[in-house]
Specification:
Length: about 325
Amino acid sequence: MRPLVIGLAALLAAPAAAEDRPVLTIYTYDSFVTDWGPGPMIEPRFEEICGCDLQLVAAGDGAALLSRLRLEGARTDADIVLGLDTSLTADGADLVLPHGLSPAVEVPVEWSDPNFVPYDWGAFAFVYDTTKVEAAPTSFEELMASDLSIVIQDPRSSTPGLGLLMWVKHVYGDDAAEAWARLAPRIVTVTAGWSEAYGLFLEGEADMVLSYTTSPTYHLIAEEDDSKAAAVFEEGHYLQIEVAGIVKETDQPELARAFLEFMVTEGFQAAIPTTNWMFPAVTPAAGLPEGFAEPLDPADARLFAPEEAQALRETALDEWLAALSR
């Protein structure tokens, strides 16, 4: 494997001919590659720079990406994995190469991970329709005591689902099992990924859905619909920082590294707010769109360090499974 020495500038200077374009394969989550996601906008922008064929492969939600890479092992076609978050980076560190970059990113925590580069961030929240829910809960305690129905994602396959697992654990600590027992009656279904859960919510199958504080922004800006809101919890909200890394098995290490460099430039970051509906890791030159959600107050942010999330996950998952199996 050749060292990572060819950067974005070199690719700009010598793009490959169309007939022998190298292929760069990125495994990512389903919503990233949809018509309304970032993929269709980002793909041609990077291909114009690199002279390559960028292939975005939908491989399930974030946690499912990690499982697929482990299952495929040396046979994987992936050069980059894009869509893990800090609840999974400790588990995925052995699957990726050190990137050797020093990205100047603007995320809510100090960033120095040698293996992963962040591309966006957000905060989890329960989203509801204000025309149907008159009094939204302002805490987990109020949600547990309510008669509202919620749909959530499976933490074994979904990063939002895992985020909720960590959120409850961060708030309740050793009492998380009892908290899940009280929350379980509110859960009408658990989906494999975010897209399925949000679709069920929009179809009226539940009063609330686990999503992001920025989700109502999509409805406001893209649909001119101000009926969706995120419930603000007095316990604070768990952060998600989404990242990408270079898969160890890649046969295009220089090109993969160049993509990570591109990922924190205007060409990528400007697409994030109104396609992925998250906060970009680098604020675009034009700033955030008018009407975009306000960032979470740092005082209200909750987040485990990657190694701590890894150490807590098995216990937290057992607590969740026990509560939902009753």
